[in-house]
Known about the structure:
This protein is of the alpha/beta class. Helix content is 36%, strand content 15%. The radius of gyration is 17 Å and the shape is globular. The termini are far apart. The chain binds S-adenosylmethionine.
Amino acid sequence: MPDSEPSGGDMIDPTVATPARIYSYLLGGTDHFPADRAAAEKALETMPVRDFARVNRAFLTRAVRYLAENGLDQFLDVGIGLPAPGSTAETALAVRPDARIVGVDNDPTVLALARAHGEDPAPSGARIVAGDVRRPAEILAHPEVRGRLDLDRPVAVLLVAVMHFVTDEDDPYGAVRTLMDAVAPGSVLVLSQVTSDLDPEGMRATARAYDRSSVRTAVRSGKEIAAFFHGLEPVDPGLVLLSRWRPDEHVLPGDDRIGMYGGVALKR
Ligand SMILES: C[S@@+](CC[C@H](N)C(=O)[O-])C[C@H]1O[C@@H](n2cnc3c(N)ncnc32)[C@H](O)[C@@H]1O
C-alpha cells in the first residue's frame, strides 16, 4: 500500500496501526502503512508474531477446507481481514464453487480494499461488509447477510484471530452466543485466539505492542477460550494448539510453540 491514504476510505487513519494491516504485513502482504510496520516490528521483539500469523492463517485454511469437504457451503467470516492467500473464499470456492461467503470487518481499510478489488464474483463468492462483532445483532440483520446466507440452513461462523481484540467489558461470550443462537442446527463455530498459557510474560509484552494500535487486546487462558464453545459439540480433536488441529504438510516443526488455541464445534 502506498504510504498515503488510499482513496475510498474516508475513515482510514494511516498514523494508527490496525490489526488487519499489521496482520497483512506479518503475512507478507502489501496493505500496510509505516505505523503498522512499526507496531509489528515492536511485537516481533517479544514474540515470533510472524509465525503466529502464518500458523493461524493455516488453521483457518484447514478448517474451511475440512468444513467445505464435509458439506458446509455457507460461511460467515467475522473479522475477515485483508486479502491474503488461504482465505475463506479462496479455500471454500476451490472445494465448493457454489459456496456463499460473507465477510465482516470493522476496519475501514478492509472495506475500502474490498471495494477497490471489486470483491463480489456474483452470484456466489464473497461479499465483505462493515460490521463489528461487539454488535452481533447488527451483523445478523445486515441485508447482505440476510440476502446471501440462508440462516435456516447450516452456516460456518468464523471468528478466527478476532476475539482477542474484544475485551471482557464488551461481552465477547454474549456476542458469540448471539451469533450461534441465530444459525440453524448443523452450523459450526470456528474460533482461534491467542493464549497466555504458554508464555505469560512474553504475551503481556506483545499485548503492550498492540496497545499502540487501534484496539485493546484480551489474551485469554485455554479455559477462558474453551468457554466460547459452551453448549456446542467439539469436532475432533477439540480445542487444541493450532498446530495440532488436523495438521497437514504445511505445519512446521516448532509450530507447537505458538501460543494460540483453536477449534471447531457443532451446534446440534
Ligand atoms: C488478525 S486479523 C485475522 C484475519 C482472519 N480472520 C484470519 O484469521 O486470517 C483480525 C481481524 O479482525 C478484525 N477485527 C478486530 N476487531 C474486530 C471487531 N470488533 N469486529 C469485527 N472485526 C474485527 C480486524 O480488523 C482484522 O481484520
